[in-house]
Amino acid sequence: MQWSKSIGRSFVVGMMFLGAIALPSYISTSTSEELLTVEEAPALPPDPAYRDYGHLYPYPFYTIEEYRIRPGDYWGGITRRFGVDYTMSMSLIQRSKGIFDMRKLVAGKSLHVVYRDPCRPPVALIYRSSPTEYIHFNLRDTTVERVALPVERVVEAIAGTIDESLWLTLQKQNVSWELIAKMESALAWAVDFYHINRGDRFKAVYEQKYLHGEKVGLGKLLGAYFHTRGREYYVVYFDNGRTKGYFAPDGTPAKGRFLRSPVKFARITSRYNRRRFHPILKRVRPHLGTDYAAPYGTPILAVGDGVVERVGYTRGNGRYVKIRHDRVYQSQYLHMSRFAKGIRRGVRVRQGQVIGYVGSSGLATGPHVCFRFWKNGRQVDHLKLIFPPPSPLKGAELEDFRCATAPIVEVLESLPIPYPNQSPSPVDKLTL
Ligand SMILES: [Zn+2]
Q1: pTM listed for this prediction
Q2: Does residue 367 have a cis peptide bond before it, meaning omega lies within 30 degrees of 0?
Q3: CA 255/CA 251 separation, integer angstroms
Q4: What's the rounded mean pLDDT across residues 269-295?
Q5: Is the pLDDT of residue 372 over 50?
Q6: Which of 55, 217, 295, 373 is the most buried (most CB within 10 A)?
């Protein structure tokens, strides 16, 4: 059993009724114990940059200056600004292939410029591509390397009672939106997050990532609990290399939130393809959907629960319906012959509910549904999204699952839930 260095760290989220508990990180691998010794080096760095890069360029032998990428900055311009010669700049572009895309420098992110001698060109450029990762451009040996920082993963837990919406309740308490989104997505098969009630209770066990003692994002949501409308739901995360996803504690997968197809027994005639030749327009036009051919009048089903966002007609789309499933996912169904009864903007639909019928309205050669799927506002190939496996775990795999997830289930069961207007429960350290 591995005990995290930060067992002693604990935190309380919220003022009124959320309690949070820091757990030892028995489940996660502390990424790089060896590197932690760097943090304990006695040097007194004048700048936080030395915490991350001082092992490469120790103080006071090197000067590390920070530059913030500005809108419109590009690699050539930046290297010129810092006196890197053109040949070197080009070689670094060559060397970065497959490691980092130089066109993806983001305004606002930092680039650290390292000097051995302040009167000469820099010896390195370090681009902080994410809070936990950097790209090291070594100008002495012309190498480019992507490096992960020694992030520590601590297992933490939180519990609370909803007083308004889940989002409002958690946002008011400063819980990261990332955790809320993960809970929403892990529990979406069971809990209708559009209709959360005052008094509903929840718990979550998750990995919190720390760098130098500061939160730098969330790892996995390891388990969650929800109590709503008199029923309790548990999900735990399981990954044994072959099977992964969220399951109920008995090994039943948190089942697919979305049907794989909006029509039963249909044939796919055209897949999502960014470079597809359009049969009617006779030119290359990306096809950001999947076409399912089916006879006229075949029922079209909502692939998931949601709210009808649009019911309309355009020359290209013909009759179409668009559904918003949650903050992340939307789906759209084109070329309908007619809409199903009662399908109007703002109406709630259930997974599998008939929303319309196959036709060829709009720009279509024959009867089919063009099915489009959005993730965070971008059209994606829904067939490539990973859905949890459909059948329950059995035999040895079920045994594996039980062993691996038992500690999480135990935490979820034993974690006390503070009630509204109750002061936060005293911070505990659970021993697992
Ligand atoms: Zn299509």
Answers
A1: 0.56
A2: no
A3: 11
A4: 82
A5: yes
A6: 373
Distance of CA 189 from the midpoint of ligand 1 (Å): 28
207, 247: one domain: yes
CB 372 within 8 A of CB 310: no
Host domain of residue 352? 267-384
Question: Which residues surround the ion ligand 1 when the cut-off is CB under 5 Å?
Answer: 289, 291, 370
Report the CATH number that the domain containing residue 365 is assigned in CATH.
Answer: 2.70.70.10
Q: Check whether residue 61 and residue 130 sit in a common domain.
A: yes
Residue-wise pLDDT tens digits, 139-157? 999 999 999 998 999 998 8
Q: How far is the CA of 290 from the centre of ligand 1 (A)?
A: 6
From CA 20, how far away is CA 417, in angstroms rounded? 10
Write down the pLDDT at residue 179: 84
Using CA atoms, how far residue 391 sits from 210, 247, 257, 302, 394, in Å, is 36, 11, 14, 22, 9
The C-alpha torsion from 420 through 423 and 429 to 432, rounded to 10°, is -20
Tell me the CATH number at 165.
3.10.450.350
Q: Is residue 1 part of a domain?
A: no
pLDDT of residue 253: 79
- Domain match, 142 and 168 both: no
Distance (angstroms) between ligand 1 centre and the Cα of 340 equals: 20
Q: For residue 146, what are its two tokens?
A: 């992507």
Q: Which amino acid is at 175?
A: V
- How many angstroms does the Cα of residue 308 sit away from the middle of ligand 1? 20
pLDDT of residue 193: 63
CB 385 within 8 A of CB 367: no
Q: In angstroms, rounded to a whole number, what is the distance separating the alpha carbons of residues 159 and 204?
A: 6
Nearest to 301 by CA among 271, 331, 344, 269: 331
CB atoms within 10 A of CB 112: 22
Note the pLDDT tens digit of each residue in 394-424. 999 999 999 999 999 999 998 888 766 544 3
Q: What is the pLDDT of residues 233-246, one digit of tens each?
A: 899 999 988 888 88
Residue appearing with tokens 């130089």: 102
| Residue 239 identity (one-letter amino acid) | D
